[in-house]
Amino acid sequence: MINQIRADFYRQRRSIGMLILLIATVALGIGTTWSRTTMGITTGGEEYAHQLSAIERQGTVRTGLQAGAASASSLVYFYIAVFVIVIGSEYSQHTLKNTLTSGISRIQFILGKYVTILIDIILLTLCYFITILITGLALGRKPGADWGVLGKDVAVMTLLVSFCISVIISLGIVLLIIAKSLVAPAVAIVIWPVLIGLVESTAKWQWLKYFDFVGFGEQIVLNTLKADQAWIYAGASVGVVLVAIIGSALIISKQEI
């Protein structure tokens, strides 16, 4: 599995797609900070919207970081490229059989791909928040907190946002294995944040909110999530990742490569 991860990172270093994605991520960070507005779709409710409005009015470096976290749903649309480059290419370039016959087990293959995607997302999201931090300082805004707090904010926001986005992408892995096509998982990853909010409000299924993984990370960052609900969100997120990884391994083991 380690060799597979190394090979994936080696291929990425030679990929212009990852460079373009990095540039786009940095550009989003600059745009979010410059405009002092959030981008993307949020489903956090009235309390979340009120807190977000208050943050946007303050205009400090720290609130800029919080606004960046609230724009995390936009990053989902960007990071679909990571999914395509890391695991989608195995299908589009027909290299899956070579990988699976090189001595790696199915579960190691899926786990290795998820770990690679997660590391990629963490690094890109870190660049995103560092860009917001630097842009805020360059625009002459007040820090809003000491450097220790700002550093902690960047670390916590990076890990939370990255993990929550990786949960959605883990669902894309399952769909890719089932459909053997990039279309279904790509569409599912892109529309997931919108779909969950739409179905929840239409069908009045309150339990669906625990599968709004991007909203989960956003609400933690903005302190609008109650502690008892946070554990349910966290459990649902971890559970989905485990089911996705194990399920994908089981499905691919039954398929002809």
Automatic annotation (TrEMBL):
Alphabetical UniProt keywords: Membrane, Transmembrane, Transmembrane helix
Domain of life: Bacteria
Transmembrane segments: 16-34, 67-88, 109-134, 154-177, 182-199, 230-252
Pfam family of the protein (one): ABC2_membrane_4
Protein name as catalogued: ABC transporter permease
Origin organism lineage: Bacteria, Bacillati, Actinomycetota, Actinomycetes, Bifidobacteriales
